[in-house]
Design goal:
327 residues; mainly alpha; Hypothetical protein af1432; 2 domains; two-stranded antiparallel ribbon; two-stranded antiparallel sheet; binds fe (ii) ion
């Protein structure tokens, strides 16, 4: 796993990458660095094939992480997106490393998507990312657990989007949905559920104090704005829109934008609502501390009638300490 110290270094100009993410015999069009205390030493220049003997030497020297420079990040990302399918299906790579590679790649990709959500190429990439996440989760009993371990507890819209996507796929799967296409639709809707927030200013989104009625009015528009943004691209399945438009609706009619009640809310809206609130509560914001899983779930039960009870029970079992990941 990439540690906190490495994350701090990442904030500067080098990014830790998993050795397992490099495919043997593939050409790498980015430089690779090795970390020696606080220095980054060039290990391999661009356009050299990565050979089995290179991999072995690194392992023999206890090097399981390499570094890339910020300028090369997009090249590396492109390389991973091209190879992620083989990585997920490679039995020699530990599941924890696969989960780390999926999560790291998703972070970079979702940042791009949120910067430019109507770019067709970005939507296509996010759909591929969701498909890979779904096939990874469908692979085994502990894969979901491995992904949960990777989740960031600092709130950013991009990490929140990935977390909600992962949690929603996990909840849907745990509730009995095992069809890949259906899970893809839920995952895509979940990943893009807050895309409408790109129209709300950061100052309002991160405001520490109470929001004014006007500011709240803007916030409440984000599901509809998200729907409009995605509708314009016409690239996602009609069912995925429910997750975007209805993730703030509540079964007891207290939600927004339309104050729908239980039988009016699509199951995808109900699934993403639970994943969304849980992630929002368990991550840290500029204006609030994160709470642990148990108090977060308790609070959701106390919000009487807001969430679908059957789904909430499934979610509690899924996230519970004894059942985590046992699908
Ligand atoms: Fe939202
Ligand atoms: Fe959200």
């Amino acid at each position: 796993m990439i540690t906190q110290t490495e994350k701090k270094v990442e904030a500067d100009s080098y990014h830790a990458i998993y050795l397992e993410s490099l495919r043997v015999d593939s050409m790498l069009d980015f430089d690779l660095y090795i970390r020696k205390s606080n220095n980054f030493v060039l290990y391999r220049g661009t356009n050299l094939p990565f050979k089995e003997k290179n991999r072995k030497t690194l392992i023999q020297n206890n090097i399981n992480k390499l570094y890339i420079s910020s300028e090369n990040q997009h090249k590396y990302q492109h390389y991973i997106e091209k190879n992620i399918h083989q990585i997920i299906n490679d039995p020699t790579i530990p599941e924890s490393a696969k989960a780390g590679i999926i999560y790291d790649n998703a972070k970079l990709m979702v940042k791009d998507v949120l910067k430019n959500p109507t770019l067709k190429e970005n939507i296509k990439r996010s759909q591929e990312m969701v498909e890979n996440t779904v096939s990874f989760i469908l692979k085994g009993k502990s894969t979901f657990h491995n992904l949960i371990q990777m989740m960031s507890f600092d709130y950013h819209t991009y990490t929140h989007s990935i977390n909600v996507c992962t949690l929603a796929i996990g909840l849907a799967r745990f509730s009995g949905i095992d069809n890949q296409l259906e899970l893809d639709k839920i995952g895509t809707g979940a990943l893009l559920h807050d895309v409408g927030k790109t129209k709300v200013s950061e100052a309002i989104l991160n405001k520490p104090g109470k929001l004014t009625a006007m500011e709240m009015g803007f916030i409440k528009k984000h599901p509809k704005w998200g729907y409009d943004i995605m509708k314009e691209t016409d690239m996602i399945s009609a069912d995925s829109y429910h997750a975007i438009l209805q993730h703030h609706e509540r079964e007891n009619g207290t939600g927004y934008p339309d104050g729908l009640t239980a039988d009016q809310i699509h199951p995808y809206g109900k699934i993403v609502a639970i994943a969304d609130v849980f992630d929002a509560m368990t991550t840290e914001r500029s204006y609030k501390q994160a709470v642990n899983s148990f108090p977060a779930l308790k609070e959701m039960y106390l919000d009487k009638g807001a969430f679908n009870l059957t789904l909430l029970e499934h979610f509690t079992k899924l996230m519970g300490p004894t059942n985590l990941g046992n699908m």
